Write the structure tokens for this entry.
Amino acid sequence: MAVPKKKTSKSKRDKRKATWKRKAALQAQRALSLGKSVLTGRAKGFVYPTQDEEETEE
């Protein structure tokens, strides 16, 4: 069975945790930005059906 040979230092552990949290914060910021642009109608890279198109298809 695999067992870690040495204890990981607190600085390495904290660095990994900070990197993980930074990535999560960046993704949250991007999602919020995309949501705002969709609501204002300025989104260019995001395609979604509008209510007018849905009604005409039926």
User: Anything to note?
Assistant: The two ends are 60 Å apart (CA to CA). The CA atoms of residues 38 and 46 lie 8 Å apart. The chain has two helices and no strands.
